[in-house]
Design goal:
single chain; 177 residues; mainly beta; Jelly Rolls; 3 helices; 13 strands
Amino acid sequence: MKIIKLKSIDNQCVMNKIEQLISTLKLLPHPEGGFFKETYRSNEEITIGESYRGKRNISTCIYFLLTSDAFSAFHRIQQDEIWHYYDGSPLLLHIISPTGEYTGVKIGRNINNGEIPQFVVPGGCWFAANVVNDEDFTLLGCTVSPGFDFRDFELADRLSLIQQFPEHESIVTKLTR
């Protein structure tokens, strides 16, 4: 069963590594794009502000893998989300704040080239991501605190997001389905 459709036959090593990571880490398709596996969910729960419906675990973590033929579509959660770089191509994280300010952040290991290995997306921001290099992948970790819960997840509707932030129509169109 072939999961990844990369364009170049010359890149068999990358495709093999992607398939190996998916298999070894037991990654599953993620609703926003890419593959994931939850690696940690704290046993303790907390009750927090009225904007959260119900209790939340204190913290959660996932592995997250994107390939250059996919992207993580614009979405938002209420909590802060910390992105940790592990392997592969740098990743470009696109963030639109609630006031409409756009920020692009390169997550990777080449600090001298403006990449950073870790970044926090503030809760309430819209964000999306794509792999920088063609025919490649990025393996990351994402930590959410209070813990991730699908009740706090909202996948962007392209037209609504463009209406809200018309100045970002190009990137919203590119990174929504």
